[in-house]
Amino acid sequence: MQLFTKRNLILLSCFLLIGLVSSILASFVVQYFYMGFNLENVHNFIFNIRTEVFILSCLVFFSLFLFLASLIGSAVLSGSFLTVFSLILGSTAYLKYQYRNEPLFPSELSMISELPFLVEMISMREIIFILGGLSAILFLIVLVYKNFSLRAKGSLTKRFQFMWRFPLFVLSLALIANIYRFNYPGNPLRQVYNQYTDFVTYDQDLNYARNGFVAGFLFNLGTEVMEKPTEYSRHTIEEIHEKYTELANEINRDRLLSESPANILFIMNESFADPSTIEGFSFNQDPIPYTRSLMESTLSGQAFAQNIGGGTANSEFEALTSLSLEPLASRIYSPYVEAADELNDVPSLAKKANDQGMTATAIHPYNARLYKRTTVYDNLGFNDFIYDEHMTFNEKIGNSDYISDDSAYKEMIQRLNETDNLDFIHLVTMQNHMAYGHKYDDPLFETSGATEDAEGNGYLQDLYHSDQSLEALIEEVDQHDEEIFIVFWGDHQPGIYSDDTISQNSRLTMRETPLFFYSNKRELSGDIGTISPIYFINYILEALDMMVSPFEAMLMELEAVLPGIYGGLYLEEGIDGPVSSRHELQVETIRLLNEFTLIQYDLFAGSNYSHDIGFYDLHTN
Fold it and tell me: Which of 67, 112, 293, 524 is the residue whose CA sits 20 to 30 A from 605?
């Protein structure tokens, strides 16, 4: 049988043409959706700014087309499925950015099981629009394919013979494997992209905006959790251990206790922030008067959040482990999702509580599977995890879909009272989760400067209820016989502010949330400024007069020079304003941060030398 007949060449030409057209269309669709349906911006991106990058993105989709064609045997159907896939991907990326103010990451595709939660964030109008649009497209594909197959009389839609489809399958599989390994050393596709892109490591919103959705998505594909520092070795870790063991011994000479004398309550309040700090946002009355007065009378400051409108699990990760997102690979969106297994080896406050005979409990009044919390909490050492289905108190306020702060606090106090040992309880609230516009029929607040007035009004009404619930909690705690030590902070700013409002505020302001430490038995006071959640442990140990491990001594030393750590935003002691990279820090600060990075690498990707030599253990010589 002749292979290169006129008919076969025509079929091959048609096959390639359909593949290229559908790949160009798919690349255009995802970029069009991601840019908020702004055709002018898409045109400028394709033809003026990133033409080569757009072509590369088309080739990525063409690889997917080849794979589909090798399986299906039809160019028309393969191109159609690729188009539908691009519409679904583009719609998801658009909605994610609209509701969370951040791009869609590859790791989040594994969260498809959380579809009911994601749907709750979308209006019914948008759901109907998406389902209606996809249904219409699928109907059109079936209609066109049937008509085309009849007209073609089996020519173009005829299944490829094995001699064509099998080699095509092997080739496409190799191409897709290369795409999947985009961030691995020496990847040829990455090397080509590097010639035409300007990848941003510290700000993925900027990275996607600058290089396009496909390039940003590829940049965030999986890789090693951390890159290996050149200085890493057992000898280096031992030197760090020796240095901070001496510092810990020096600190412990003035400390009295090796175990906690108090119950410790960690309260990470969803989207809890102070709206009075935001320029361009106005409102008719203060929603958090009690919280404001409490912070003035106890030890307080600002927590340094990683994101705006999202990133709850990242703030939680830093607070519970005293490890930072900053040294992690830039593609790591959430350690809870992408490094859940590695968390089994890291230190945590829950594991520290276990070592001291305390009961460690996590409470989250929502879906236990979100952000892999069931697995993560187990790996972090919690003895129990109480979530919505297991809660005694589950009341909601107004039209809200989320359990109230008041119910969450009651659940926490009930847990505190029913255990015999001292408790470490970590609570992640849900009441203040977006969206806000539908929650209250008649809110007390009138706002200006949000994306929609109803969103601003509803958010402040949420804060008002949080403030009242906090006051009731403190009254309850003050009457308790045992000592209770509270760490309270907001996980991030809400995603309600308009672009104009955000532009009037610094990056630092948009990442600061209220933070305070409170004890029902001790007098605490002072303003600690803005700190990263990794340093919360320092204030617990100091306030409770507890001894420190070499690791905790390292955290105290690092905080003294670098109280705020975030990739692209560093708060250095004695420096006016934040800096944007490690290279701008002072030499001593860089040295201490490098030591911290070595320890973190040892935990996540190294040989765990630090565990072997007792870096996280308390030395009571």
Answer: 112
Q: Which two tokens stand for residue 518?
A: 């409170």
Give the SS3 label for residue 468. helix
Measuring CA to CA, how many Å separate 424 from each of 212, 268, 479, 486, 520?
44, 14, 19, 10, 16
Cα angle 511, 514, 517; round to 5: 135
Q: Per the structure block, which two tokens stand in for 175? A: 């191409």
Pairing relationship of beta strands 263-269 and 423-428 according to DSSP bridges: parallel
Q: Output phi, psi for 468, to 5 deg.
A: -65, -40
Cis peptide before 435 (omega within 30 of 0): yes
Q: Are strands 299-304 and 527-531 parallel, antiparallel or unpaired?
A: parallel
For residue 483, which of 293, 259, 253 has the smallest C-alpha distance? 259
Least confident of 16-20, 248-252, 333-337, 529-533: 333-337
Q: Mean pLDDT throughout 579-597?
A: 94
Higher confidence at residue 207 or residue 7? 207
Choose among 583, 585, 521, 577: nearest CA to 558: 585
Strand partners, 396: 403
Q: Which amino acid is at 242?
A: E
| Backbone angles phi and psi of 514, in degrees to 5 | -60, 140
CA atoms within 13 A on the CB side of 94: 20
DSSP sequence for 142-163: HHHHHHHHHHHTTSSSSPPPHH
Long-range contacts of 196-205, Cβ-Cβ distance < 8 Å, separation of 24 or more: 196/50, 196/52, 196/53, 196/56, 197/50, 197/53, 201/330, 201/567, 201/568, 202/330, 202/567, 202/568, 202/569, 202/580, 202/581, 203/567, 203/568, 204/102, 204/103, 204/105, 204/333, 205/101, 205/102, 205/103
Partners of 403 in beta bridges? 396
Phi-psi region of 581 (alpha: psi -120 to 50; beta: other; left: phi over 0): beta
| Token pair of 191 as six digits | 């090397």
Q: What is the pLDDT of residues 354-381, one digit of tens each?
A: 999 999 999 999 988 777 788 899 999 9
Residue 531 has pLDDT above 70, yes or no: yes
The reply to whether the predicted model has a pTM over 0.85 is no
- Model pLDDT, residue 155: 44
How far apart are alpha carbons 117 and 131 in whole angstroms? 17
Q: What is the pLDDT of residue 585?
A: 94
Measured in whole angstroms, how far is the alpha carbon of residue 195 from the centre of its chain? 29
Residue 353 has pLDDT above 80, yes or no: yes
How confident is residue 286, by pLDDT bands cut at 50, 70 and 90?
very high
Place of tokens 């028309």: 76
At residue 163, what is the residue type? M
Question: Average of pLDDT values for 94-112?
Answer: 71
Q: Name the residue among 533, 553, 546 with its Cα closest to residue 596.
A: 553
Q: Which residues does 481 contact at the CB level (< 8 Å), separation at least 6?
A: none
* Furthest-apart CA atoms within the chain: distance in Å: 92
State residue 525 phi and psi, 5-degree precision: -160, 165
Q: Which of 347, 411, 425 is nearest to 381 (CA)?
A: 347
Confidence class for position 150, pLDDT limits 50, 70, 90: very low
Looking at the DSSP bridge assignments, the partners of residue 450 are 497
